[in-house]
Amino acid sequence: MSEIRVNNIKNEAGSGAPTFPNGATIIGTLTGTATTAQGLTGTPNITVGTIGATSLNASGVVTATSFVGAVTGNVTGNATGLSGTPNITVGTVTGNLTGNVTGNATGLSGTPNITVGNATVTGDLTVQGTTTTIDTVNLVIEDKNIGIGTTTAASNTTADGGGLTIFGGSDGDKTWTWERGSSSFVYSDPNKFKGVIETVAAATTYTSGSNLVLELDVRNATTYTYTIPTGANIGIVSFKNMPAFTGNANGTTLTCIFTQMSSTPAGTGNTTGTTGIGTNCFVTGYENGAAVAGISTRALVGSGTTVTLSATSNDRDFVSFFVHYTGGTNTTATSYQVYATKNGGFRQGNVGV
């Protein structure tokens, strides 16, 4: 027998719905309210519409080409081929949900795999997990300041190694990362700039014993200015916060623009042949966010002479220092080499404007 035509089907007692122990296959549209279908894969409760004036109870599998009406309750297993514009309210969804879903979906839980086309989120979106993969051609972000490495207790330590990676395959990745040891950003490849603007800061001075110390903070600027007052002899040039990450050699160039303001400059600025700029240097290394014990050394100068400043009032001298950290023990004098050179005696020309 391949077809039965009836108006109503009841159980043997005539008081309820019949049962289908081996399941039921429905080809067509299942409509109505308050229909309970159990045993998709497990024992979920699915409430759809009403079929006629009674209910359909299935302990096996119910398959239909489409559902029209509201589906509520717990769905466990695979739901495929959804069509039309149903409103779907589910509690727990486990397994794969595929097809076209249009309407309202609330209360999703468990570990469902959901694939959608276009999605618009009008509120905040929170993604929790280990890996988030965005497979798209264009990524457009309105926020002009992007924060990474967020944590409840952010520090120089948690930021270590943070940055950006451009995958380069067999040619090697291109990285820009924060290095805690040297307290600086590290690039895996050279940088190309159209122009470079250096930070200019005023050199500071303080007295140590009988010496006037001219201090250049390596982390603050690359170019410094200092106006030499009458009778102010510079006894020591101090290089503060020199990056000294043990085992990683590096170097930095610093330039100081000296302006001679003394009307009687003889010996001013400690510029006599025996006590020139760089005769006494003090270097304080910087590693892992903190200064290390400083060392005293003497600058290397051309032809073994000293760097002296102009003795003419209002002259300007450019003294450049190159501080080389060899990568050795950062509290040992032999791990640092200071070089000093000068282009001096600059003053306003008498030709032109």
Structure report:
The structure is a single chain. With 353 residues, the chain is mostly beta strands. It is rod-shaped. The chain is built from one helix and 28 strands. Strand 23 and strand 24 form a beta hairpin. It folds into three domains: 19-113, no CATH class; 156-187, no CATH class; 200-346, no CATH class. The strands form eight sheets. It has a six-stranded mixed sheet with strand order 17-20-22-27-28-26, with no helix packed on it. Strands 18, 19, 21, 23, 24 and 25 form a six-stranded mixed sheet that branches. The protein has one helix at 156-159, and strands at 19-20, 24-25, 29-30, 33-37, 46-49, 57-58, 62-63, 66-67, 70-76, 79-82, 87-94, 96-99, 113-114, 163-166, 174-179, 184-187, 200-202, 204-208, 211-217, 223-228, 234-243, 250-260, 281-287, 290-291, 295-297, 300-301, 316-325, 336-346. It is 1% helix and 39% strand. Residues 32-41, 43-61, 64-74 and 89-94 have low confidence and may be disordered.
Content-based structural category: mainly beta
> Mean pLDDT, as a whole number?
78
Number of discrete domains:
3
| Secondary-structure element order, N to C | EEEEEEEEEEEEEHEEEEEEEEEEEEEEE
**Shape, per Cα inertia axes:** rod-shaped
